Amino acid sequence: MKKIVVAIGGNALNRPGELPTAEVMKVNLQSTMRYLADLVEDGYEVIITHGNGPQVGNLLVQQDIAKDAFPPFPIDVNDAMTQGSIGYLITQTLSNELNRRGVKNPVACVLTQIVVDRDDPGFQHPSKPVGPFYDEETGRKLSSEKGWSFVEDAGRGWRRVVPSPIPLDVVEIDSLRTLADAGVILVAAGGGGIPVVKTGDGIIEGVEAVIDKDRASALVASLLGANMFLILTAVDYAFLDFGKSNQKRLEKLSTTEAKTLMDAGQFAKGSMFPKIESAVAFAERTGKDAVITSLESVEEALTSGAGTRVYKG
Predict the structure, then answer these.
(1) Measuring CA to CA, which residue among 234, 250, 240, 218 is closest to residue 297?
(2) Which range, of 142-146, 283-287, 290-294, averages the lowest pLDDT?
(3) CATH class, range 3-113+169-193+208-311
(4) How far is the CA of 292 from the CAs of 169, 250, 282, in angstroms?
(5) pTM higher than the cut 0.85
(6) DSSP readout, 261-297?
(7) What's the CA gap between 224 and 47, in Å, rounded?
(8) Which of 23, 81, 220, 293 is disulfide-compatible with 297, CB 3.0–4.6 A?
(9) CB 129 within 8 A of CB 210
(10) φ and ψ at residue 153, rounded to 5 degrees
(11) How far apart are CA 201 and CA 188, in angstroms?
């Protein structure tokens, strides 16, 4: 059986212009899970990861509004809350879809802690967009009033950014491996996992950050010995000169070529860059391929080579 880690993008939960409600997410996930149930029926051992950027950012906004009545939680606790709530919706919708098909594979969400370096420079330079989009004027106003950092996010608007350290290890990796080997379909490292550091005596402590879900997913895929790492996004391929009249889709990309294109600024920092970066990391660690494509093209990616395939070379 082939083991596949599938990182689902934010469009699997909320599409542009939709209200960020639990009901909307559930409806969208019902559609998404049909594609993933196909993989299970085809005999793949599936581990699902997901983002939480919009959801954790929205939660931070809610808590800021209510701060005079209830003290806000630190970001790592909010990471845990969104990992649990989104994981609940994914496991329920996938279980229901499999049940309709008569497929009995168990599904489980594992609350996952990801080890980072306390001295990671990402803590000094916030870069992970979270929460809603604002116009520039509103972003500057919120930055001045609340001390939040904002960036323009890939032409879509201004968003708050928070620290995003590099993931180094997975606390629950042995549990994940045992469950996967027992045939459990896993939902893990949701939202990039809960960022933690280890002290000299082995004590684990949470830190305030949001880890990029593609980076965390690549780490999980490597540690679990996945045969392939699938990064699902809103487009079928990564492109050169994306959005321009001369844009060109990338079908096969060596890790060396990918690094050159990243250094040349070809991929947007808030969208495609971390996906290419994570695909490179997985391919270099394992020698296996990573594929970037859309949810709708998953089957073609596995059977006929659709999507942008990143390989070691």
Answers:
(1) 234
(2) 142-146
(3) alpha beta
(4) 23, 10, 12
(5) yes
(6) HHHTT-S-TTTHHHHHHHHHHHHHHHS--EEEEEGGG
(7) 10
(8) 293
(9) no
(10) -105, 90
(11) 26
Q: Do residues 186 and 4 make contact, with C-beta atoms less than 8 angstroms apart?
A: no
Residue 194: Cβ within 10 Å count = 27
**Which tokens go with 217?**
């997913």
Give the pLDDT mean for 104-129: 94
Q: Where are the domains of the chain?
A: 3-113+169-193+208-311
C-alpha to C-alpha distance for 171 and 164, rounded to whole angstroms: 18
The owner of tokens 């949470």 is 206
> What phi, psi does 176 have (nearest 5°)?
-60, -45
Residue 129, phi then psi, degrees to nearest 5: -70, 135
Map tokens 């540690």 to a residue: 223
* Three-state SS sequence of 111-179: CCEEECCCCCHHHCCCCEEEEEEECHHHHHHHHHHHCCEEEECCCCCEEEEECCCCCCEECCHHHHHHH
State pLDDT tens for residues 255-280: 999 999 999 999 987 789 999 999 99
Alpha carbon separation from 62 to 67, 72, 82 (Å, rounded):
9, 9, 13
* Helix (H/G/I), strand (E/B), else coil: 241: coil
Active site (catalytic) residues: 10-11, 128, 213, 275
- Tokens describing residue 99: 């049940």
**Burial (CB count <10 Å: 0-12, 13-18, 19+), residue 111:** middle
Mode of pairing for the β-strands spanning 185-188 and 45-50: parallel
CA distances from 218 to 74, 146, 169, 211 (A): 26, 34, 11, 12
